[in-house]
Amino acid sequence: MIRDGKQRGWLSLPVDSLPVWAAFNSVSFDGVDIGPLPGKEDRGSTVIANRSLKGRHESPLITIPRDLILSLERIHEHAKFDSDFRAVLEGLDDFGRTARGAILAFLLMQSFTACPSVVKKKGVSGPFTEYVKYLPMELLPTFWSSAECELLTGTTLAPALTAKLNSLHREFDQIQDATSNIPWCAEQWWDEVDGIIEFDDWLQVDAFYRSRALEYPGVGDCMVPCIDMANHTSGTGTAAIYEVDDQGNAVLLLRDDKDIEENGEITITYGDNKGACEMLFSYGFIEEDMQSARELFLDLSIPGDDPLGRAKAAVANCAPGLKIVDAVKGVIWDGAYIWLICVNEEDGLSFQIQQTVEGTRELIATWQDEPVHGFEGFRSILEKDPLWDVYHLRAVSILQERVASQLRDLYGSDDRVDAAKHGDGTDIRDRPWHLAKRLRLLESELLEKAYSHYEDQKLQLMQSETVLRYLSGPNVEQEEDFS
Ligand SMILES: C[S@@+](CC[C@H](N)C(=O)[O-])C[C@H]1O[C@@H](n2cnc3c(N)ncnc32)[C@H](O)[C@@H]1O
């Protein structure tokens, strides 16, 4: 439905008509317009200064009345007088009480309400029925073909994308199940012949939300018309910030330290720390002058031959992975799961079945006979142990091996990606090919940096007296290999 509307025009309005929509809805602009920036049209529309602007001397560049902030609260307000939408939202149960669930369902409903071929009209039109017409279809990786997704082999985006598509399928099934008993939904959304909602619509509303949602101070995750037309620049390039004013309206403010020439672009930041993978995943681009992947997430699994593996997996209350962040000196990593992998029974880890106050039985972990309440803080317990350097060395070795296996996957698929035909007449578009190549390069550079950082750390830890004593001592049941 949505793709059809964007292509045929019934769900599409030219951005030069946005000022009319804005005036009609009491949105005010001061010193800025919205439209494509000459030379950067491939980035869609953006906020452009229509006169020279001086930091500290400008009033809000854009003011959006609080009623137009598309938040969970606003959607629940709308549902009070839109009984058709209320039925959909109530069907979604807990999912409808999250900002994401409510906003996606609302955007789907508003697109349906706007559809001219619907005979039995449903839903109440409002400012957003028109606003969805200004939202472009972003080419996020969830819309990449399978040949394009193949280009991501070995990057951290590949598993993230698979997981996202699985979760989008689950959400779509959920909305279908939740609304199939509403007669008009059964007939107009889901009927095998006449129903007009399909999985692609869920991908579209997800992409609208993911690429435009802002975490607004005091409001939470939401969409804010017009301010969501601002493109991204990180660091000192960011020209403006978004806030709520004392009446709860959303405002776009020029940064104090910024002067913008007439026709200059007013950008915001979508998150200065977001890595290349997340930028591509959520916004479909990687900033041109990004020099590093910034951060990457790697999954971890407990080795199959770990005698306590099943018990560890059962009690682990932390994500099975780690985050590596680029730093001025080497890399920083974060993730509690690894500590669970690198200790075992001979070190002092054990498991017991305990009776709870409710009378049920639960598995609990103990370290040196003391119960471990959650593994998030396990590192600080290990740090106090006389054998800390040994555990630390094990963790660094596991990390380095995980990084090496990621590099093998990445380099092992490089030739295929390089040789992949792309462009007109192929099933790989130029843009995904270039973005995948860029991500591969940035991630391989960060992984290489991490690998040599861990090598240095390992060499250092190998000199530790604790480690030397441990390795030559009688307690080492199995020879440990830190090579
Ligand atoms: C919040 S929207 C910004 C408005 C959008 N340009 C439009 O036409 O509606 C985010 C999208 O803008 C584009 N974008 C924003 N900043 C960009 C940048 N620095 N480089 C390339 N594309 C950018 C991406 O397509 C992204 O998904």
Automatic annotation (TrEMBL):
Q: Where is the signal peptide?
A: none
Q: Which residues form the SET domain?
A: 30-271
**InterPro entries recorded:** SET_dom (IPR001214), SET_dom_sf (IPR046341), SETD3_SETD6_MTase (IPR050600)
Q: Which SUPFAM superfamilies match?
A: SET domain
Gene Ontology CC, one term:
nucleus
Q: Which domain of life is it from?
A: Eukaryota
PROSITE patterns per record: SET (PS50280)
A GO molecular function annotation here is: protein-lysine N-methyltransferase activity
What name does the UniProt record give this protein? SET domain-containing protein
